[in-house]
Amino acid sequence: MSQAKFDIPFQSAVSPEVLDADTRIHFRCYKGISCFNACCKQADVTLAPYDVIRLKRRLGMSSTDFLAKYTVPFQMDQDGTPGIKLRTDDTGTCLQLNGDEGCGVYEDRPTVCRYYPVALLALREKGSAEAREQFSLVKEPHCKGHLEAREIRIGDYRTEQGVEEYDELNREWYQLILKKKSAGPTVGRPPETSLQLFFMASYDMDRFRRFVLSDNFRSTYQLTDDFYLELERSDEELLRFSYRFLRQVLFGEHSVQEAADAWEKRVAERKEVWDARREFELKRRAAAEDEKYRHQPDAESTPDQNPGDRPCCD
Ligand code: SF4
Ligand code: SF4
């Protein structure tokens, strides 16, 4: 029998028992239950890429603004892989909670909130980076939904909570993180630019779109005009493309064709940047030298000719 390793990426108070889609659980949550909103008042919600798309659209803001206003960053592993959580107030209450009405973004609530009290487990066979999805149950004392009589298959609970669409769009990202983990810790911290790229391509779709539609990107990667149009129009297509792009950049899995002279062009562009930087630095140093000599006392001048140099004035 093959050994397996379990990762529990998005919930922590989980029972160790691994469940599958056919497992039946007792659970029901509804407005009016005695603990209504208790979970949202101690929210610890990690967001996946598609969660951000749904929430920024719901709130009518750009992904960049949404990230700044409604999320907090954390490190997902010792390499500093960036993760984000929903921001709460000082008491731990989710900022999306709309008083006694419940979740203010219910139709677009994140994956973790949909799954609760089920936790999605990404399970990988030893020697494989591919994940299999299984589940576990989160049982927290404040949650009274477990005492309800209703029995439901986990598979049916997923359908009821609208999780499948989210999983479909986040699955490749989960795989990507598992693959990164299975590669082991990086020797030394990964370059800041690759962490920034991971952050942008995972969460900040509007910024990533500008990056992909830039002249620089277009001259480097050979994609058709129709495909670029699709990336311009659709967040979902852009997200799928971001996974391809991250696999290429992080793991060298080439699926985005680069222009034949892309490397030479990049070196030429870099050279322009390096030349400009060197020129700027030379000018800066020359200006600093000029400034230094301008403020030195002139041996020929008298104190009266340079009143600013006098130790005191009248
Ligand atoms: S997003 Fe909604 S369901 Fe999730 S913690 Fe916040 S208020 Fe609760
Ligand atoms: S039953 Fe659980 S999930 Fe539902 S409101 Fe109560 S604490 Fe939250």
TrEMBL record:
<dbReference type="Pfam" id="PF03692">
    <property type="entry name" value="CxxCxxCC"/>
</dbReference>
<protein>
    <submittedName>
        <fullName>YkgJ family cysteine cluster protein</fullName>
    </submittedName>
</protein>
<feature type="compositionally biased region" description="Basic and acidic residues">
    <location>
        <begin position="288"/>
        <end position="298"/>
    </location>
</feature>
<feature type="region of interest" description="Disordered">
    <location>
        <begin position="288"/>
        <end position="314"/>
    </location>
</feature>
<dbReference type="InterPro" id="IPR005358">
    <property type="entry name" value="Puta_zinc/iron-chelating_dom"/>
</dbReference>
